[in-house]
Amino acid sequence: MGIIIAVISGKGGVGKTTTTANLGLGIALNDKKCVVVDFDIGQRNLDMILGLENRVVFDMVQVMDGEANLKQALIKSKMSPNLQFLAASQTKDKSVLNSDKIHKLVTDLSAEFDYVILDAPAGIESGYEHTIEFADRAIVVVNPEVSSIRDADRAIGILDSKSQKVKDGSEVMKYLIINRINPKMVQSGEMLASDDILDILNVPLIGKIPEDKGIIDASNQGKPIILDTNSAAGKAYARIAARLCGQEVPLENVEEPESGLMQKIKEMFV
Amino acid sequence: MLTKQYSVKVFEVTLEDENEFIAFFDKNYVMFTNHLISIYGEVSPKIETYLQEKNLKYIVNTQLPKNRASKSTPKEQVQEKKPVEKIQDNLKVIDKLVRSGQELKIQGDLLLLSRVNSGGSIVIDGNLIITQIVEGDIRCNGNFMMLQASPKANIVFHEVEVDNKYLQDKLNRVELINNEIRITPVLKETKWA
To answer: How buried is residue A66: exposed, middle or buried, by Cβ count under 10 Å (0-12/13-18/19+)?
Structure first.
């Protein structure tokens, strides 16, 4: 049985889908079979970020309704043979989801893959509740700003009260990713420091990702930034993927601004 | 001849610094309107007019018969008035974060060992002690609350909003005394039990 991981945030736009795409690919590059599932019914994005938008034939809802089987709907990634993708429906809305169908779907997926990563929709409504319902673990993505932290806190509260694991008396393991850290703003005190965020959310940290302009271009091109081994964000995602695969990778301090020669020359002209 | 015997509460004070004296009475004079204030030290005209303004009865450098008098500070008097049985009532101890969107409704007393996050709330009938920072909402109707300095919290005590600026110390005690809310700092070194 594979591990079912939900990627959640509460607030929209903090980088859930980007994180899902990069970690899915990162896990696949670590030689584990991985499937990423877009649970944002009605607003699918993950296909674009993975560069698979023109390959979608059947979606998750059609699989759940028996209109297509899983094999037909799963799309193989061009970037790694270990990674597959299941698209959200673009035409239906979240009201079509129900617990029994979702349970069957994620159970079938976890029988075939080592990691099943579910990209939750933003917000805390039924679509979100269905995503976390059968998750074994959750990755909480936040940005270092107060509204993201509060929304994540709320999402964690719902996870801790409504997931099946909690109802069965156990606990959903949670990991925190602090995304879009701007080293300069953290140092000048304009951004919340990681320690404060950890105090508030009380969830163990699995990685920090620096703000990286390359991410927008990577998304537009459909090539997750983890493939760019020179990018700071790509390297950060690779470290997190390795940690999820059970490797011991020390946390790196992404809050320190670059201090290379180019940086010094730039500063001379400021 | 007409005689009458009654006892008066005396508040004894040594006058050393005028400003300190006035500052103290400015803050607390309501409590002493029925007391006789016994002052040791020199009473300047400034103090004299001040005391008359506040309508406080006082005597200066008078030795009162004290052998049977019971010594008590104003704070202790206040505590006597509390219904003792309400101080501990069905105490609950919780060591779990109160997250955004969660509401704890508690009958009785609560000792909370975790923080209350922004958007979380606690509604409680009894007394409340929170050992970590509060950023959410508190509604308490007990005899007292003990809270940390919590600049972001929204605290309502007996339907009165408590201004965060009065909660400045590591631990603050908020209590209801004669329909007035009193906030006193509790030092960090205070022993709990």
So the answer is: exposed
Nearest Cα to Cα of residue A99 among A150, A167, A53, A148: A167
Question: Looking at CA atoms only, how far is residue B181 from chain A in angstroms?
Answer: 30
* Window 102-141 of A, Cβ < 8 Å to B: 124
**Nearest residue on chain A to B134, alpha-carbon basis:** A200
Residue A80 distance to chain B (closest CA, Å): 39
Q: Which of B99, B118, B122 to mutate to test the interface with A (most CBs of A within 10 A)?
A: B99
**What CATH topology corresponds to A3-269?**
Rossmann fold (3.40.50)
CATH of B84-186, one of 2.160.20.70, 3.20.20.80, 2.30.130.40, 2.40.30.170: 2.160.20.70
ipTM above 0.95, yes or no: no
Distance (Å, whole) CA A174 – CA B75: 48
Q: Which is it for strands A205-210 and B10-14: parallel, antiparallel or unpaired?
A: unpaired
How far apart, in Å, do the first and last CA atoms of chain A sit?
56
Among residues B44, B58, B35, the alpha carbon closest in space to that of B16 is found at: B44
Provide the residue ranges of all domains of chain A, joining segments of one domain with +: 3-269
Neighboring chain A residues of B99 at a CB cutoff of 8 Å: 153-154, 156-157, 160
Q: Model's pTM, two decimal places?
A: 0.74
pLDDT tens-digit profile, chain A (270 residues)? 899 999 999 999 999 999 999 999 999 999 999 999 999 988 889 999 999 989 999 999 999 999 999 999 999 999 999 999 999 988 887 788 889 999 999 999 999 999 999 999 999 999 999 999 999 999 999 999 999 999 999 999 999 999 999 999 999 999 999 999 998 888 888 888 899 999 999 999 999 999 999 999 999 999 999 999 999 999 999 999 999 999 999 988 887 766 666 666 666 665
